[in-house]
Design a protein that fits this description.
The complex is a heterodimer of chains A (281) and B (261). Chain A is mainly α and 281 residues long. Chain A has helices at residues 3-28, 32-53, 58-81, 87-109, 117-122, 144-162, 164-172, 174-179, 184-225, 229-254, 258-280, and strands at 132-134, 141-143. Chain B has a domain at 7-89 and 160-253: P-loop containing nucleotide triphosphate hydrolases (Rossmann fold, 3-Layer(aba) Sandwich), CATH 3.40.50.300. In chain B, helix 3 crosses helix 4, helix 3 runs parallel beside helix 5 (144-157) and helix 4 crosses helix 5. Classes of the chains: A mainly alpha (281), B alpha/beta (261).
């Protein structure tokens, strides 16, 4: 392994962690498909922010994508509550529409630039080491993606630690939470913001299709074994890391897509865990 | 309307409409303190909705609910809610102790530290519902009756004055039902007020001091003996009974095959 390999694995791990943490709450709320919807719907937000600002600078892209993520959440809820469209149908309608708009924008306006369909769908984690930066001039240099993902990871850990009770209770028993004065809507949007940000940051590395594997896979495996929520969060992170390491090894062995291999490893881990759980627990 | 000296819950002109269909219509009542009160009515009468309206969990189309003559937000710490057991996901990664500790969140806020005192209160609550030996169990491994006891323990840990219980006896075993009832009675004897959504007419007479009879609008409210009359009960349950008797008449008329041969 040379340093490029290490940077790729580290970036993948950081991305897996920022997905696994909010992903646990999504899985517990049985909202995994909303994660899928958000991870696709951030595309038009990214493209519009890119077109308006003319740069791929994360400072512009993140807010645009997060706004698109919130938009999809609001739209899905509006369809369900106001127009009484059933929940799976409303999710399917909204995110495919937004994603398709994003695809049209990419193909129509950004054909000559470095934002292309390949990158949108599959990500470009293999190129991460070619985009190095350091926080201070001449300081420690690491891939830009890794900096961003680590920054978000820090934010997520702080938010989940501080907001633990709110997230926990509004996920487990929204009725009781409201009765004792905790705003379920507030914590819902906090969670959706975390998912949107995780989706955007992961998007560049693993692509729209595989973000949802990272959001739901490791938490789903963790939920098979964890007796308590803190353990579930921890286990989801462990499984995320395992999937990245093994996924990368398989990808370099087969000379295949890294993000694809990671997703496959997640699937295999899940199947394996189910069997283990059936036999030993 | 029946006047009550010191009221626990007061509801005035309360109307709740879901999707253009009135679920609660112009409800007006006062409930006393220190009583065990049953909310009774047929399925779909709005019993749970009434409870949620009192707790501010559903939007009101008109009217208001007051608790101890104050707005809910000023007296939240005196109110505890025990939702229907089926409304939560019992596969959740939490232990019995975790769930009961949620009863202390209100006192500690979202960020305050859990103290040794809180742990003591949680242990006491578990003791009272005889679930002490299950405290480290994951909640997914509990029976229906045990789940209900855990919910009750969480409410006890909250140390409130007013308890609202939504269908606490659904799907629990006879011994749990008995122990919940005796616990409710002992809470009442300590001066607490308990409001229980209940649908079993047979047991209601034994359990409650006061009754609220509901069928979208208020049919009656008051002490058990005044309210539990044949006439009032017939009014409350009449809709359902007519439908059923009509079906019965049809079956007889047409000699409809009830069972295939």
């Amino acid at each position: 392994m040379n340093s490029n390999d290490l940077w790729i694995v580290f970036t993948a791990i950081a991305v897996a962690l920022i997905c696994a943490l909010p992903g646990c709450f999504l899985v517990l709320r049985r909202m995994a498909m909303v994660g899928d919807a958000i991870s696709h719907a951030v595309l038009p937000g990214i493209v519009i922010a890119y077109l308006l600002s003319g740069s791929r600078n994360t400072m512009y892209i993140l807010p645009g994508a997060a706004a698109a993520g919130m938009l999809v959440t609001v739209l899905i809820e509006w369809l369900q509550k106001r127009l009484r469209v059933q929940s799976d149908a409303s999710i399917g309608l909204v995110y495919t529409l937004l994603f398709a708009i994003g695809v049209i924008l990419v193909t129509a306006f950004t054909a000559q630039t470095d934002l292309d369909q390949e990158c949108v769908l599959y990500g470009e984690i293999a190129y991460v080491p070619f985009d190095m930066m350091s926080i201070v001039d001449g300081g420690f240099s690491a891939p830009r993606q890794l900096w961003i993902a680590s920054g978000l990871l820090t934010v997520l850990i702080i938010v989940i630690t501080l907001g633990y009770r709110g997230l926990y209770l509004s996920t487990f028993d929204p009725g009781y939470a409201t009765a004792i004065g905790i705003s379920v809507v507030f914590w819902h949007y906090i969670l959706m913001s975390m998912v949107s940000l995780a989706a955007v940051v992961s998007f560049e590395s693993v692509g729209a299709v595989l973000v949802v594997a990272l959001l739901t896979g490791p938490p789903a495996i963790a939920s098979l074994f964890a007796k308590r929520l803190p353990l579930m969060l921890l286990l989801a992170c462990v499984f995320g890391v395992l999937a990245c390491v093994f996924g990368y090894l398989i990808a370099s062995f087969l000379n295949a897509s890294i993000s694809g291999s990671i997703a496959v490893v997640i699937g295999v881990l899940y199947a394996f865990s189910l069997v283990i759980k059936k036999i030993f627990f | 309307m029946k006047e009550v000296k010191s009221s626990s819950v007061e509801v005035h002109n309360l109307t709740v409409i879901y999707h253009r269909k009135p679920v609660l219509w112009n409800i007006d009542f006062q409930l006393p303190e220190g009583k065990l009160i049953g909310i009774m009515g047929p399925n779909g009468a709005g019993k749970s909705t009434l409870m949620k309206a009192i707790l501010g969990l559903v939007p009101l189309n008109s009217g208001y609910a007051k608790i101890y003559d104050q707005d809910l937000k000023d007296v939240r710490s005196r109110v505890s809610y025990i939702p229907q057991r089926q409304t939560v996901d019992w596969d959740f990664p939490a232990t019995v102790k975790d769930v009961v500790m949620m009863g202390r969140y209100q006192h500690r806020g979202l960020f305050g530290r859990i103290t040794a005192k809180d742990k003591e209160i949680v242990d006491e609550a578990l003791e009272q519902v005889a679930m002490q030996s299950f405290k480290n169990r994951q909640i997914a491994q509990l029976s229906g009756g045990q789940q209900q006891r855990v919910f009750l323990a969480r409410a006890l840990a909250q140390q409130a004055d007013l308890y609202l219980l939504d269908e606490p006896f659904v799907g629990v075993d006879a011994s749990t039902e008995e122990s919940i009832v005796s616990m409710l009675r002992s809470l009442r004897d300590q001066g607490k007020t308990l409001i229980v959504v209940h649908h079993d007419l047979h047991t209601a007479r034994d359990y409650f001091d006061w009754i609220v009879l509901l069928n979208a609008s208020l049919i009656g409210v008051g002490p058990l003996d005044e309210i539990f009359t044949d006439e009032k009960l017939r009014t409350t349950y009449s809709g359902k009974l007519t439908v059923l008797s009509q079906v019965g008449d049809r079956l007889r008329e047409k000699n409809f095959p009830v069972r295939e041969k």
